[in-house]
Amino acid sequence: MVDTQQAPIVLTCEQALKDKARSLRLDALEMTTRAGSGHPSSCFSCAEIVTALYFSGILRYRPDQPDWPERDRFIMSKGHAAPLLYAALADAGYFSRDELPTLREVGSRLQGHPIQGLVPGVEATTGSLGQGLSLAIGHILGGRLAGLDFRVYVLIGDGECEAGQVWEAAMAAAHFRADRLTAILDYNKYQETGPISREMALEPLAAKWRSFGWHVEEVDGHDVVAIVAKLEALAQVRGQPSLLIAHTVKGKGVSFVEADYTFHGRALTPEQAARAKEEILCT
Amino acid sequence: MHLGERAGLRPAKPMRDVFGEALLALCRDNPKVVVLDGDLGNSTRAELVRQAYPERFFNIGIAESNLVGVGAGLAGAGFIPFIVSFSSFLLCNAYDQIRLAIALSNLNAKVVGSHGGITLGKDGPTQMGIEDLALVGGLPTFTILVPSDPASMRWAVRAAAEHEGPVFLRSSRVAMPHIYPGEHALQIGKANLVRQGDDLTIVACGIMVAAALDAAAELAEQGVEARVLDLHTIRPMDREAIAAAARETGAIVTAEEHLLHGGMGANIARIVAEEAPVPMRFVGLADTYVESGDPEALLVKYKLTANDIIVAARQAVAAKRGGRP
Q1: Which of A12, A43, A133, B228 would suit a FRET pair with A266, their CA atoms being 20 to 30 Å apart?
Q2: B27 CB near a chain A CB, below 8 Å?
């Protein structure tokens, strides 16, 4: 073993964390605009969540050893937020930022949705929604067998909670008392075709998860310091898996994207992107 | 007359029993192997592992999507998962999960589809895996193994574990007679010659290998010498052996306990058409679902017997001699 392993980047001051979230948002904007496709608004809603995980000391990782057995796992179950994940992984040191502009191009490793094994740091192939939580349980069971104490974090979408597999996994995680598992729900209240309350109502959401045996907390999903505090507290939960419901805004940071859910599956035009960039820089 | 009797094959115990014992032996030798069950361990015989190594056996319940996902996660944690359930439930219920979490990720995970084909007792078409090979055929990174007897099942379980990458292994409820005496070293992707012959070649997998040998024995009495290949690996398919069979014997019959559409025979035909077009005939399930009933009666009704292979062989040989396709 080399003793020069790269360690996680840990930003301790609030402003630095906010700056990081802003920078990830800008990266996702630029990547999807350049590609001419993608899901920018779904990236914007989870920028603070991903920042908290990778850049506040929550996740234990070694970017130069992506398969380090003791690493904490992060599974981006809402795979359409891939650009934000790629930007975070690049900043964390898994690969060069020079690769980010190749998103969705022929020959690039940065597929429209993440592919496990293709990009260092990507723990799961996602994009068909509903699958991440099950994978997390497998990692937890494997960690137990191997005698390792890593934690597993999964970011799930709210629309994703319509999938039956999510509830199969919710049941199983409680059955296996997976207390090293924390799911974070990016509750931005919209799915592809409209408001969730209109398309397929999820409420009472926290009560549903509690009834499945989970410890549930809620947080302002754009208050990165509050997210960090909640995640630290949830790591202390024993005997049951935990869920952090992060109340977020789809398209957060760009007023005209926040106001129009149809930005779910399309990129901004270069003109829109220029306006969006200014707005994000002013946040 | 029992299956394999005409060819002088010894009867054996049910394939699922052989599978369960082989899986248990594998777990004994390899601590990295874990077993995931969809609450059918008593039927698939994966349960043998539960008794011996309870810490490495996980019943994920009647939830195939989650079953596959949890298995994939265990692979991500460095273990070699054997995900075992009925072929029909795994592939039809959790196809998307197998596709993303295992196939696209090129994960070192093993999917065992038990109760493949129509020979599973009287449970009927809902439980039959008649399309499993076609479905897993749609997952390009999967190696596909279909054992034909106890020795090849024992080989296949070990070969699946030793092969780095996704493997589908078909298991069966039915007994298949011994094709191979004792242990037999097979090789992934290499068809096994089980009978020499120059008049035609019968390429078979699973239970149809014994039926092919029965057919070959009777054909020999009529002066037709059939070569028989045990195509235990459906992918990667042994292009060389199939091309050689076409060139050297001039006619091919395929036999499988599976739908003809998208099955083994259709893929063999692709190779024959490219390498050495010769007359071909196909024994398998035409576009139909099967029904409840005694397995032997079903094999007769749905034309999956040695006699059906013989009819096909005569047609293929006649076409060859008549210069027809």
Answers
A1: A133
A2: no
The answer on pLDDT for A1 being more than 50 is no
Instruction: Name which of A118, A165, A180 to mutate to probe chain B: the one with the most chain B Cβ atoms within 10 A of its Cβ.
Output: A165
The sign of the CA dihedral A252, A257, A261, A265 is negative
Q: Which residue of A has its CA nearest to B95?
A: A128
Angle, in degrees to the nearest 10, between helices B64-76 and A164-175? 60
Chain B contact present for A90, CB below 8 A? no
Quote the minimal CA–CA distance from A39 to chain B in Å.
Answer: 20
Instruction: Give the C-alpha separation, A249 to A241, whole Å.
Output: 25
Q: Flag whether A6 is in a domain.
A: no
Residue B172 · residue B115 · CB < 8 Å: yes
Q: Which residues contact A236 (CB under 8 A, 6 or more apart)?
A: none
What is the predicted pLDDT for the residue at B233?
A: 98
Domain of residue B41: give its range.
Answer: 15-170
Under an 8 A CB cutoff, do B76 and A135 touch?
Answer: yes
Residue A4 within any structural domain of the chain:
no
Domain of residue A51 covers 14-281
pLDDT single digits (tens) B76-116: 999 999 999 999 999 999 999 999 999 999 999 999 999 99
CA distance B145 to chain A (A): 24
CATH number assigned to the domain comprising residue B308: 3.40.50.920
- Is residue A243 in some structural domain? yes
Catalytic annotation on B64?
yes
Nearest CB among B65, B76, B100 relative to A168 is that of B65
What CATH number did the domain enclosing A20 receive? Answer: 3.40.50.970
A200-229 pLDDT per residue, tens: 999 999 999 999 999 999 999 999 999 999
Tens of pLDDT, residue by residue over B115-152, are 999 999 899 999 999 999 999 999 999 999 999 999 99
- Whether the CB-CB separation of B152 and B172 falls below 8 Å is answered with no
What is the rounded radius of gyration, in angstroms, for the C-alpha atoms of chain A?
Answer: 18
Residue B22 lies inside a defined structural domain of this protein: yes
Confidence of residue B182 (pLDDT cuts 50, 70, 90): confident
Q: Are residues B58 and B202 in the same domain?
A: no
Chain B residues in contact with A162 (beta carbon < 8 A): none
**B chain contacts of residue A165, beta-carbon cutoff 8 Å:** 63, 65-66, 69, 97
Q: Is A1 a member of any domain?
A: no
Which positions in chain B touch A73 (Cβ < 8 Å)?
Answer: 76
Most A-contacting residue of B35, B58, B66 (CB-CB within 10 A), to test interface? B66
| Contact criterion met (CB < 8 Å) for A134 and B79 | no
* Helices marked H in chain A: 14-35, 40-44, 47-55, 82-92, 132-146, 164-175, 196-199, 205-211, 224-234, 255-258, 270-281
Contacts A145 to B, Cβ<8 Å: 34, 55-56, 77, 79
